[in-house]
Amino acid sequence: MKHTMLLCFVFLFGVGLSAQEKAPKVSLDTLDYHEFPGVYHNAFKAGEYLRFRLAYGLVDAGEAELTIHSSPKKYKGREAYHIVGKGRTLGAFNWFYKVDDTYETYLDKKGTFPWEFVRDIREGGYTKFQNYKFHQDRAAVSTHKGDTFGTLAFAQDMLSSFYFARTLDFTNVRVGDVFTIPTFVDEENYPLKIKFIGRETLKTRTGKYRCLKFVPVLQEGRVFEDEDDMTVWITDDANKIPVLAKAKVLVGSIKMELAEYKNLRNPMAKVD
Fold first, then answer.
1. Residue 244: helix, strand or coil by DSSP?
2. Alpha-carbon distance 250 to 122, whole Å?
3. Mind listing the pLDDT tens digit for each residue in 31-81?
4. Phi, psi of 160 (to 5 degrees)
5. Where are the domains of the chain?
6. Is the CB of residue 99 less than 8 Å from the CB of residue 4?
């Protein structure tokens, strides 16, 4: 179960890790300014709460929660959401591999890009802490280690990419269309990609939904052997919430399913 909750959040994003490159170290004084984009959407709001269950086979092994708060912090005079993601193991899994992960992002309300990212994870004997400060007007990020790296323009972090993906317009999507999200992860630049493969009505533990179906476009041999080994279903509505993700990983199979939701901005695409 090593890095189980990292996989959880990969599922929540609905994306996989494609080809990556080491981010170059830079000096802020040498970088050009970028105008902030506006990303207009009706996908989420402060107060939204999502809870997912992670299963191995028929057994619930873990849980992930995502909550959106209004942040009192402002970045360059701009308002932000404070989004908190928590992942943990359940029941007997705590005895042999306890997971207790926290992810936080401060997401620009108008531009849907991150200003700050915190990752504090404990998975068995493995721990990791990260604190990134994004300089979005310079396409750069400073880490808690004191280094500054050049990023792709308006790069997302591990958590914010999930919310940015929900702002994408799938109104006229066609089978085979690929969407790319620039992301900065572990001092590397990732163009995260998802490919649309169709529509489907799906029955889950929280109901029956009209869904859009995606697979990640990723580098073979990293987590999944083939891009078709992972599939994500998101609601075919304005919320665009993942209701189910299934994957074959190198150590077996895993499933992430929506278990609870509150305070959504829009009605869900449920089918009676």
1. strand
2. 21
3. 888 888 888 899 999 999 999 998 877 788 889 999 999 999 999 999 999
4. -65, -30
5. 4-262
6. yes
